[in-house]
Design goal:
This protein is of the alpha/beta class and 273 residues long. Among the domains are: 154-196, no CATH class; 205-272. The chain contains one helix and ten strands. It has one helix spanning 2-32, and strands at residues 89-95, 108-114, 161-167, 179-185, 205-210, 216-220, 229-234, 243-249, 252-257, 265-272. The strands form four sheets. Strands 5-10-7 form a three-stranded antiparallel β-sheet, with no helix packed on it. Strands 6-9-8 form a three-stranded antiparallel β-sheet, with no helix packed on it. The longest helix has 31 residues, at 2-32. The chain is elongated, with a radius of gyration of 37 Å.
Length: 273
């Protein structure tokens, strides 16, 4: 009987020690769940913070043009990839080389660079229902600078509007269709819809010479229609002589004077509308 009691007592001590060890392991793991476990040289552990004092890189051997080096998906409305830097680039994307060195620029949230013969853009945006690229700031929302073109706007649908510059409260009024550039500001708001500080060149405008003894001039203008508005004025001083009418028609602008010229003259013309 004493032997049986001693055996049962020994088993209880073993079970108690084992149970206490398991509980201690669980509690210890719970206590360490929010701490940084992976360090330089360790594997990255999912579901927790990881720290290192040198760069971590990942490459794939698949040379397929559609191969993806790293794919990250976020649930619901979360952020798939977030990058931050105190003074450098938050996220840097390069097309043209796999040897990605830090970009020379700094203080940029997202920086993109494409350096090869078939490069399209350093940073691209696309949306079938919203805005492809959105820029907001307290000063300049979008800044474009280029060796050939600073900012390019194009409407794939020729019935749309390529560039819409509007100064208005929301909701914004719709832009004018079939228009490359539409500048809008309400008259009641004061100010200007467009302001040109410098020379303005218009294709549907020009200067034409008129010979002495003539009282009219026909000028070929590609794209001109009879519904457009035409203006003309003499550029030389002709006594008691003026432009009587400027009449647009299909491809031709006809300028009429009130009488025949006594000397050669120059007339300036412009078409709008």
């Amino acid at each position: 009987m004493e032997a049986n009691l001693e055996a049962r007592s020994s088993r209880r001590r073993v079970l108690a020690a084992a149970g206490g060890g398991i509980i201690g392991m669980v509690l210890g793991a719970m206590g360490r769940s929010s701490t940084v476990r992976a360090a330089t040289g360790d594997a990255i552990v999912a579901g927790q913070a990881n720290a290192a004092n040198v760069e971590t890189s990942l490459s794939i051997s698949d040379v397929s043009s559609v191969a993806t080096g790293l794919r990250v998906a976020a649930a619901s409305s979360g952020v798939a990839i977030a990058g931050g830097s105190p003074r450098g680039n938050g996220v840097l994307g390069v097309s043209g080389t796999t040897d990605v060195a830090p970009d020379a620029g700094a203080d940029i949230g997202v920086s993109g660079r494409a350096d090869h013969a078939e490069a399209i853009a350093g940073v691209g945006g696309d949306s079938s229902t919203g805005v492809g690229v959105l820029g907001t700031a307290d000063s300049v929302g979008v800044l474009g600078a280029g060796g050939q073109v600073g900012v390019l706007g194009n409407s794939f649908d020729l019935t749309g509007t390529s560039v819409y510059a509007v100064s208005s409260a929301y909701p914004l009024p719709a832009p004018l269709a079939n228009t490359a550039l539409h500048a809008r500001r309400a008259l009641s708001a004061g100010g200007y819809a467009a302001y040109v500080d410098g020379r303005l060149r218009m294709r549907l405008s020009g200067r034409a010479s008129m010979a002495s003894g003539t009282s009219s001039k026909a000028i070929s203008v590609t794209g001109l229609t009879s519904t457009m508005m035409a203006f003309a004025v003499l550029q030389t001083s002709e006594s008691a002589t003026w432009v009587r009418a400027a009449v647009p028609s299909a491809g031709v602008l006809r300028i009429y004077l009130n009488k025949a010229l006594t000397s050669s003259a120059v007339v300036a013309w412009m078409v709008i509308g």
